Amino acid sequence: MKLQFHTQFIRITLIVLQLINPSLQWPEPEYSATPIPAPWPEQFHALLYMNLSSTRLQITNLWYDWPRGRNVNIIQKQLSILLYDTEWNNGTTFYYTLSEPHSCRIMVNDVGIPRPDFLDGAEYLGTAVTDGYLCNVWEKIDTIWYYEDVYTKRPVRWDFNDGISTHVITFEVGAVLFDDSVTQAPAYCFNQEMKNM
Ligand SMILES: *[C@@H]1O[C@H](CO)[C@@H](O)[C@H](O)[C@H]1NC(C)=O
Ligand SMILES: *[C@@H]1O[C@H](CO)[C@@H](O)[C@H](O)[C@H]1NC(C)=O
After folding, report:
1. Of residues 23 and 149, which shows the higher confidence score?
2. Is 90 near ligand 2, meaning CB less than 6 Å away?
């Protein structure tokens, strides 16, 4: 109570001072600022536990690499095959296996991979405990709900409106996938027509 009164008094004093001299710039006190999500690091590796709406589960190794314009998802679906999903910033995505049964799908979109600041403009919803972590939660254009650890600022979870819920198990800032043999789409990708996403 006493503290609140005190900070209120300081705020009013600052406003009065600003009225007297509008060129005075006072930083917004931290306690009143709406939290904003930390931008994604330009390069990271994350191990992701994903629960698909169809009640299926998968483990994904995500290698996000903004400088290389590349977002690689190595997807192990439960009791199923290993899939490689290599997304390039020019909008081309290759979705393929590297062992039998061979398959490849090429998809094209006009947005490319997420920018590090793709959460800019998200609406702050408050805090919630998820996966045992106290998180700040944001929502962006009814598409993504994003949970970030209040203390470490690491992503904990994000949900898409298609029902896929992603839980971050490890988050290694700066890690880079150097094995180009897995990001190079196999030859059998290139004797077929492109499909639009
Ligand atoms: C996956 O999500 C569904 C729907 O939210 C939920 O009912 C189910 O318990 C989840 N499964 C696991 C293993 O987390
Ligand atoms: C986008 O970049 C990838 C990797 O360099 C390349 O394989 C693909 O053909 C490119 N797509 C277009 C439409 O240029």
Report:
1. 149
2. yes
